[in-house]
Amino acid sequence: MAVSDHVDFPTFMEGVKKRNPHQPEFVQAVQEVAEDIFDFIEDKEDYHSEQILRRIAEPDRVVSFRVCWEDDNGNVRVQRGYRVQNNNAIGPYKGGIRFHPSVNESVLKFLAFEQTFKNALTGLPMGGGKGGSNFNPKGKSVREIMRFCQSFMTELYRHIGADIDVPAGDIGVGGREIGFMFGQYKRITNEFTGVLTGKGMEYGGSMIRPEATGYGAVYFLANMLATKGMDLTGKTAIISGSGNVATHAAEKIVQLGGKVLTLSDSGGFVHDPDGIDLEKIQWVKEHKTHRRGRISEYADAFPRATFHEGKTPWGVPCDVALPCATQNELLGADARTLVANGCIAVSEGANMPTDLDGVHVFKAAKTLYAPGKASNAGGVAVSGLEMSQNSARRSWKEEELQQMLKDIMSGIHARCAEYGTQDGGHIDYVKGANIAGFKKVADAMLAFGVV
Ligand code: NDP
Q: What is the DSSP string of 50-93?
């Protein structure tokens, strides 16, 4: 019997850095989880001897492939596509597809790693994966996007399946792109199965899937505020992003009585002191999706608002903040500003939007701070419900799904509280989410032996 390997945290992280050179996002994500897991597994021999954390931090596989397509001018274009299948201990791999020029192996490995814990937290049987391409949909015609999606799926189809790996949308991939990819999958395989989620309602999609991530992040926020006897009525909120997650988070904040002051995109942020109400949110949705406009144009449409070019919104005083754009968009200095301005709670709609410095600031200030793997799990949870509906060949009603989403977010909050409650009653949601997510996956892995 081999002697178990009780490496300490610095040695473990050294190994992760050495094995994953030039992959800073992946190393950052592993470090954030490992900081909490090392304490938790201290006295748990099985997790050490079976090298569970080491195994979860090594993807089951990373598939990388060439994607060729032809643009409208007849030029041949070449992109790189990926699927990272991180861990399927508790169910088929599940996680979105991202089309953005910043996509690389590091970004997708971090996202697939995070997804593994997030999916476990939902309580549904889903493993963790993520995929995408450095294809930039901005400025492309609909036909170009269609040809790219078809070419991407022409390789991806070999690696996915309703019981193998079920991708969904993410940055740059919405209902339209899912439709193009599903059409190509069906054409190649001659099979109609629930191989993708986020599908249109006409062909197996689920009600409230587009809304679920943003709404879920606000339900989680409401759960956090409730632990302090507060709710969202009259609270001011700053939100980054103006895509799917940001606009739906804004919608739910307004519905629950809050006032949204900001939205943003990669060009800068808009600050509307009158509040971004439901009508204005609808304008943003149409402007960004159908007119493919920029958030700067909001200030032309609503003259009381101001546009701040090249800036993030974290300096605007607020009660609550929801980063809903992308990774590492809220840095340590921003976190200090938020705390100094009296921000009570931060609920992440995006994945890893706060850098490690920022996470440490929120933890030290005892801010009600929810990491994305807990607070943005509503999207994948409803994707899980879409899979169930596809398998059973039925659809649930909107009210039923709304209630299930609320219950799932409350369940995730309770799991975080179970493992994250500190002496004095403060809940460390990062720790709670990391341990609860890890434990479920780890215990399944123990059952399988060394595989
Ligand atoms: P969208 O493509 O709909 O919107 C992304 C938004 O973020 C846009 O406003 C975009 O601005 C902005 N953005 C992207 N990159 C940057 C950047 N480098 N700097 C500043 N702003 C940026 O994506 P989603 O709303 O679906 O996703 C947003 C986040 O939520 C991501 O982190 C994603 O992983 C996460 N998430 C999404 C889920 C979902 O169900 N869709 C589920 C769980 C998490 P611009 O238009 O200028 O690019």
A: TTHHHHHTS-SEEEEEEEEEE-TTS-EEEEEEEEEEEE-SSSSE
pLDDT digits (tens, 9 = 90+) for 26-51: 999 999 999 999 999 999 999 999 99
pLDDT < 70 stretches in the chain: 1-5
| Residue 213 CB less than 6 A away from ligand 1 | yes
130 carries an active-site annotation: yes
- CB 348 within 8 Å of CB 371: yes
Tell me if domain 61-196 and domain 210-370 are identical in fold: yes
> How many distinct helices (H) and strands (E) make up the chain?
17, 12
Q: Report the C-alpha gap between 149 and 158 in whole angstroms.
A: 15
Q: Where are the beta strands (DSSP E) in 71-216?
A: 76-87, 93-99, 127-133, 165-168
Cα separation, 103 vs 374, whole angstroms: 23
Q: What is the pLDDT of residue 290?
A: 74
Domain covering 210-370, topology: Rossmann fold (3.40.50)
Give domain 61-196's CATH number out of 1.10.630.10, 3.40.50.1470, 3.40.50.10860, 3.40.50.300: 3.40.50.10860
> And the tokens for 432?
């709670």
Mean pLDDT (the chain) is 96
Closest approach atom of ligand 1 to CA 325: 7
pTM, two decimals, is 0.96
Q: How much of the chain exceeds pLDDT 70, in percent?
A: 99
Distance CA 241, CA 132 (A): 20
**Burial of residue 143, with CB atoms counted within 10 A of its CB: 0-12 exposed, 13-18 middle, 19 or more buried:** exposed
How many alpha carbons lie under 13 Å from residue 155 in its C-beta half-sphere? 19
Catalytic member of 109, 118, 130, 259: 130
Is the CB–ligand 1 distance for residue 204 below 6 Å?
no
Which of 78, 88, 83 is closest to 116 using CA atoms?
88
State the distance from the centre of ligand 1 to the C-alpha of 47, rounded, in angstroms.
35
Question: Domains of the chain: which residue ranges?
Answer: 9-56, 61-196, 210-370
Q: How far apart are CA 305 and CA 274, in angstroms?
A: 8
The closest residue, in CA terms, to atom 21 on ligand 1 is 266
Cβ(103) to ligand 1 under 6 A? no
